[in-house]
Amino acid sequence: MQDRAIRTRRKILEAAASVFGERGYQAATIADILSTAGVTKGALYFHFASKEQLAQGVLRAQEGQDPVPSRTCKAQELVDMVMVYVHRLQTDSMVRAGVWLALNQQAADLDRSGPFLTWSETLTELLEAAREQGELLPHVKPAETARVIVGAFAGVQAMSQTLSDYADLGERIAELLRHILPNVVISSVLASVALDGDRGTKVSAEIAAEAETDGQRLETVGG
Amino acid sequence: MQDRAIRTRRKILEAAASVFGERGYQAATIADILSTAGVTKGALYFHFASKEQLAQGVLRAQEGQDPVPSRTCKAQELVDMVMVYVHRLQTDSMVRAGVWLALNQQAADLDRSGPFLTWSETLTELLEAAREQGELLPHVKPAETARVIVGAFAGVQAMSQTLSDYADLGERIAELLRHILPNVVISSVLASVALDGDRGTKVSAEIAAEAETDGQRLETVGG
Q1: How confident is the model at residue B223 (pLDDT cuts 50, 70, 90)?
Q2: Does the keyword Iron apply (chains A, B) (predicted)?
Q3: B56, B179, B183, best to mutate vs chain A, most A CBs in 10 Å
Q4: Beta bridge pairs of residue B185
Q5: Three-state DSSP class for B139?
Q6: Who contacts B59 (Cβ-Cβ below 8 Å, separation ≥6)?
Q7: Do B26 and A25 touch (CB under 8 A)?
Q8: Is residue B88 within 8 Å of B95, Cβ to Cβ?
Q9: pLDDT in tens, B120-155
Q10: What's the CA angle centered on B105, arms B99 and B107, to 5 degrees?
């Protein structure tokens, strides 16, 4: 997709996220989103054929971001992935809009399964890699534990938003993982895992620094 | 409150729950709720002064139900309380409406903290009682564990509704508790706790049977 099309698509998704937030998914109309986005009807329908597709776009807006750095310890990589997501929720309104839409249980006609399934698959794969390295306790079933973490995360973030407007989100998700991990990874792995409320901010800074280095490297190659 | 007033109040709350579900909280109006409930404007405003108060009524509709039977083992009582709530979610549309409203993160002007705080207090008290009986591991902080269970429950139920329309809710909540409890209660307690996907249905039947016995006893006393 060309730069201009990507920018238009993003503008439309931001308008959709804002209208869904303001009016609720059920009551929102394409006309509302059109006037908020300030694009032509043709441009909107080129990217999204329906309100449902706009919602799916918002639900998927979190995907395709820079991955967390690969770690020798896969349990650490899982923690990092979850905690970077905490940071994204706190700093990116599109990521927030996606999660809020996924939890809009009143929107009966909207398929909200995407984020739950995508996240479950990602965490299952990481846990399977952890299993192969001998990091997991013998009774653990990766798909079950992944499902528990994804579901529990969704609720804990909702509670944090409700009670503290996400100010305590890092602490609350670290607290959740500290309740689950001792029953998932072997004790030597547990002792080595870095898990505090700020972990997401630290790893996000690491990702940003790596992206910058890569950018400079590309510039050098280009020049 | 008189029987008739209780029935009218319930009718209004059911209408509010239905309208919030259909149109979303943000777009719903008192006029919509009025025409769905089929009561007079005076009756509605006698019970609820605003849309926010109607929403608070829906959020609190789950309260005041028959308590779960007291258990010698407080960890079992906690499990029973959580699993009975599973059963209520599956069978009572008002309970569902309350949870869905509590998770409507897009409704920025609605105070949704009530259910999170009430449930956290209830589970904290139960965990403190468990602590006094020596059921908990030494590192456990009741308020933290209660908060984790409440938040996690909210998300796991949302995921179950999205992926299976609550068909697997009992299994998914039992799975959540099986991931958390080994890190909360001592092993002899863990071994004794009955925790399967059907637990909520069984205990709900027990509660109903007790209520019936109490009713018969009252009739006997009255006659």
Answers
A1: very low
A2: no
A3: B179
A4: B136
A5: coil
A6: B98, B101, B102, B112, B114, B115
A7: no
A8: yes
A9: 999 999 999 999 999 999 999 999 999 999 999 999
A10: 100
Can you say whether the dihedral through the CA atoms of B91, B95, B100, B103 is positive or negative?
Answer: negative
Give the mean model confidence (pLDDT) for residues A116-123.
96
Residue B219 CB contacts under 8 Å (≥ 6 apart), including other chains = none
Q: Determine, for residues B106 and A159 on separate chains, whether the beta-carbon distance falls below 8 Å.
A: no
Over chain A, what is the mean pLDDT? 93
Rounded Cα–Cα distance for residues A71 and B137 (Å): 32
Flag if A155 and B152 touch (Cβ within 8 Å): yes
Residue A222: what pLDDT? 57
What CATH code is assigned to B3-58?
1.10.10.60
Looking at domain A3-60, what is its CATH homologous superfamily?
Homeodomain-like (1.10.10.60)
The answer to whether the beta carbons of residues B99 and A105 sit under 8 Å apart is yes
Q: Which phi and psi (to 5°) does residue B185 adopt?
A: -105, 155
For helices A3-23 and A51-60, give the axis angle rounded to 10 degrees.
100
Task: Write the residue in A27, A101, A162 that is nearest to B23 by C-beta.
Answer: A27
In a 3-state reduction of DSSP, which class is residue A185?
Answer: strand
Q: What distance in Å separates the CA atoms of residue A135 and residue A138, rounded to the nearest whole number?
A: 9
Q: What is the pLDDT of residues A134-189, one digit of tens each?
A: 999 999 999 999 999 999 999 999 999 999 999 999 999 999 999 999 999 999 99
The CATH superfamily assigned to B74-222 is Tetracycline Repressor, domain 2 (1.10.357.10)
> Two tokens at B222?
């009255």
The verdict on a CB contact (< 8 Å) between A154 and B158 is yes
Q: Which two tokens stand for residue B80?
A: 């029973």
Residues of chain A with C-beta less than 8 angstroms from the C-beta of B104: 24, 103-104, 106
How close, in Å, is residue B1 to chain A by CA atoms? 31
Supply the pLDDT for residue A109.
87
- DSSP characters over A114-156: HHHHHHHHHHHHHHHHHHHTT-B-TT--HHHHHHHHHHHHHHH
Confidence bin at B21 (pLDDT 50/70/90): confident
CB contact set of A186 (below 8 Å; sequence gap of 6+): A134, A135, A136, A137
Q: Where are the domains of chain B?
A: 3-58, 74-222
Return the pLDDT at A221: 64
Helix ranges (DSSP H) in chain A: 3-23, 30-37, 41-47, 51-60, 74-91, 93-102, 113-132, 142-164, 169-180, 187-192, 199-222
Write out chain A residues lying below 8 Å of B22, CB-based: 26, 106
Kindly compute the dihedral angle of the four CA atoms of residues B181, A144, B100, A83, in this order, to the nearest 10 degrees.
80
